[in-house]
Design brief:
Layout (H helix, E strand, L loop, with lengths): L1 H28 L4 H14 L13 E5 L27 H12 L7 E5 L15 E2 L7 H4 L2 E9 L2 E6 L18 E4 L3 H10 L6 E3 L2 H9 L5 E5 H11 L3 E6 L7 E7 L5 H14 L1 H9 L10
Helix pairs in contact: 3-8
């Protein structure tokens, strides 16, 4: 008899426990109540609120770029290349993008500070002295292993610049550049474009800076240089006025410029939200229309 009573008690306890567990599962699997959903959304939004952003300096957004920074990306009030150690500028495509992203994150123009980040050192692993860097940094898997790179703020096309007097000035195809000696800045995707897309018979000459490559073009050390198309506009208009952009290169996949952040940066998602908002508002197109002008040359096939 005692065994039957004990068994009945155990069965009753088991039933109560099963009912309780079933109730918890139903609440977890069901649609969240409106109040809970609102709280979750608010929490996500608050993560990108200015006061919650883990910037290097509280209340300040630190942005890096190279020195000098060239048009059409940055320029001073006279239209010359900009020195980030001098007065801030909002002139140029990347300057406009940088301040627009800052605004989306809640920072005023006065709360933005600039630091110099040489391009060739920007991808080294380790801590960074900026919140993000903007310097025509193309996304590559290799770079993304040592730094974080945001979504696109500019979709890139590479281009070929030669002297107007060059025998390659009339090139209409990639085959016409087969025997060209081309120059390029070290560590750029322009180098990949030469090797993988143009595939000339001569190895490209590699220079530590774009300025050095341009000097080589002026001096006839190379037949041409490869740079992104907007940069070619400034090269041919100001730096080497006796040069011309003979064509753009077909893209192998979509190359794009992104903002560069320290590896694992907690700012990346918020920066991507800011870029997405600017794209949706049409601001990125407006900036491109204002700063990246000119009739694009044909694509060399």
């Amino acid at each position: 008899m005692r065994k039957l009573v004990l068994l009945a008690v155990l069965l009753a306890a088991l039933a109560a426990f099963t009912t309780a567990c079933g109730s918890d599962d139903d609440e977890q699997q069901g649609t969240p109540a409106p109040a809970a959903t609102g709280a979750t959304d608010t929490g996500a939004a608050d993560a990108c609120a200015k006061e919650n952003l883990p910037t290097r300096e509280p209340g300040t957004l630190t942005i890096g770029t190279d020195n000098p920074a060239f048009p059409p990306w940055f320029q001073d009030a006279e239209g010359a290349p900009w020195d980030p150690t001098t007065e801030p500028t909002k002139e140029g495509y990347e300057a406009a993008v940088a301040y627009a992203v800052a605004g989306e994150l809640g920072f005023s123009d006065a709360e933005v500070t600039w630091v110099v980040v040489p391009f060739e050192t920007a991808f080294k692993p380790g801590p960074k002295d900026f919140d993000f860097d903007i310097n025509q940094v193309s996304f590559t898997k290799k770079r993304d292993r040592t730094v974080d790179i945001s979504d696109s703020y500019y979709d890139v096309e590479q281009s070929v610049v030669v002297l107007k007097s060059s025998k390659f000035a009339g090139a209409k195809s990639l085959a016409d550049l087969k025997d060209a000696k081309l120059g390029v800045q070290l560590g750029t995707t322009s180098y990949d474009a030469i090797v993988n897309t143009i595939q000339p018979s001569k190895d490209p000459s590699v220079f530590s800076s774009n300025n050095d490559a341009i000097t080589a073009l002026k001096n006839g050390q190379v037949d041409g240089i490869v740079v992104d198309y907007p940069t070619s506009l400034y090269v041919t208009a100001v730096q080497v006025p006796n040069a011309t952009t003979i064509g753009r290169l077909p893209a192998e996949g979509q190359e794009y410029f992104g903002l560069m952040l320290e590896e694992g940066s907690p700012l990346r998602d918020c920066v991507n939200e800011a870029i997405a908002s600017l794209r949706e508002q049409g601001k990125l197109d407006e900036f491109a229309q204002e700063w990246i002008e000119g009739q694009a040359p044909p694509v060399l096939e």
